[in-house]
């Protein structure tokens, strides 16, 4: 079996490895697709706290169950060889202060498949705890369904925002997360959803996802303040600008991942005077099952969002393309024999 391995900080290699064996309450999954995202780049660059090399990356995965370990079906699960599944990568300790108080996504010992110490899905087969596995319908496209994991993160984002019918929502960044937050905003009952991105090509994807108000700067929009403003860029200048666009009593969500050593400036007076609320959102939290349901209900235009697929051999090309900001969502298909351009 072939596996893409981050062997040390900044170094990746393709390795032949024995087929993993699922342990107690684990399943073996043959990978269909695994999305590439900024987290993979942070992990490879050694910027993700706690990563242990060597590590197989890949946390946005779908596949087909090929073996079921002991004890899997003794409780509530009913998993069998041939089931088509999506995998929640988050593993939590269940014991720390945050786990026992219902904030498992903030677990002090948080591990993510392909992120910290457990191998991920950028390999032909991988092992996942049964509790992280979600069955998909037979008609669900396994390649497109690799968007379920980022969708689960976006649902977590909306879980901690007010969802008042008729709100006006502004999203910074028309990449994968911005597109998901914007599409969910429409579902959540916003009167308008505006998306801004400096890159016109990315705004075209937003158009295909049904987001009508698209600008390279919010200065061009018909309004100057929004009830909910969400940054999905992690860019400090975007974040500073976004905070000035929040209506009194409104919310700003810091969703994009800014570099951990950077700071942003804002007016504390405005936060006080206008009762602004600033919230963060970290990964998946009780949202994976709903992401499966919303995905299968057609809540997002997955076809418009994925532009390229890569074989394991071309993994480095995928990362280079991601770093260059080209294409839409990129994914790796470890069992495919050729890399493909899905949207040119
Ligand atoms: Zn991701
Ligand atoms: Zn914990």
TrEMBL record:
Matches recorded under InterPro entries: ADH-like_C, ADH-like_N, ADH_Zn_CS, GroES-like_sf, NAD(P)-bd_dom_sf, Zn_alcohol_dh
Q: Which PROSITE patterns match?
A: ADH_ZINC
Task: Write down the required cofactor(s).
Answer: Zn(2+)
The identity of this protein, by name, is Zinc-dependent alcohol dehydrogenase family protein
The keyword Amino-acid biosynthesis is assigned to this record: no
Alphabetical keyword list: Metal-binding, Oxidoreductase, Zinc
Q: Which organism is it from?
A: Microbacterium pumilum
Q: Report the sequence similarity comment from the record.
A: Belongs to the zinc-containing alcohol dehydrogenase family.
Q: Which CDD domains match?
A: threonine_DH_like
**Could you tell me which residue ranges the Alcohol dehydrogenase-like N-terminal domain spans?**
25-137
* Domain Alcohol dehydrogenase-like C-terminal, chain residue ranges per copy: 177-296
């Amino acid at each position: 079996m072939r596996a893409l391995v981050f062997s040390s900080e900044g170094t990746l290699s393709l390795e032949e490895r024995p087929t993993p064996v699922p342990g107690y309450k684990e399943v073996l999954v043959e990978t269909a697709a695994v999305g590439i995202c900024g987290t993979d780049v942070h992990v490879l660059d050694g910027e993700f706290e706690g990563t242990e090399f060597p590590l197989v990356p890949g946390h946005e995965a779908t596949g087909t169950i090929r073996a079921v370990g002991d004890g899997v079906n003794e409780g509530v699960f009913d998993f069998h060889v041939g089931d088509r599944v999506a995998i929640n990568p988050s593993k939590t300790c269940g014991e720390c202060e945050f786990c026992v108080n219902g904030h498992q996504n903030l677990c002090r010992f948080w591990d993510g498949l392909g992120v910290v110490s457990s191998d991920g899905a950028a390999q032909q087969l991988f092992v996942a705890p049964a509790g992280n596995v979600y069955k998909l319908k037979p008609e669900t496209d396994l390649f497109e369904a690799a968007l379920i994991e980022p969708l689960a993160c976006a649902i977590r984002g909306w879980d901690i925002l007010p969802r008042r019918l008729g709100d006006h929502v502004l999203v910074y960044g028309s990449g994968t997360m911005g597109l998901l937050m914007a599409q969910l905003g429409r579902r959540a009952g916003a009167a308008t959803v505006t998306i801004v991105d400096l890159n016109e090509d990315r705004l075209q994807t937003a158009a295909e996802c049904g987001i009508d108000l698209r600008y390279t700067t919010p200065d061009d929009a018909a309004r100057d303040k929004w009830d909910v403003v969400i940054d999905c860029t992690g860019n400090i200048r975007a974040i500073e600008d976004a905070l000035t666009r929040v209506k009194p009593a409104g919310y700003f969500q810091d969703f994009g991942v800014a570099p951990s050593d950077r700071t942003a400036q804002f007016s504390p007076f405005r936060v006080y005077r206008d009762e602004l609320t600033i919230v963060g959102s970290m990964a998946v939290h009780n949202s994976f099952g709903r992401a499966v349901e919303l995905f299968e209900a057609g809540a997002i235009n997955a076809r418009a969002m994925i532009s390229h697929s890569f074989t394991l051999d071309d993994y480095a090309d995928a990362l280079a393309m991601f770093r260059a900001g080209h294409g839409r969502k990129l994914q790796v298909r470890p069992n495919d024999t050729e890399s493909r351009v899905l949207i040119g």
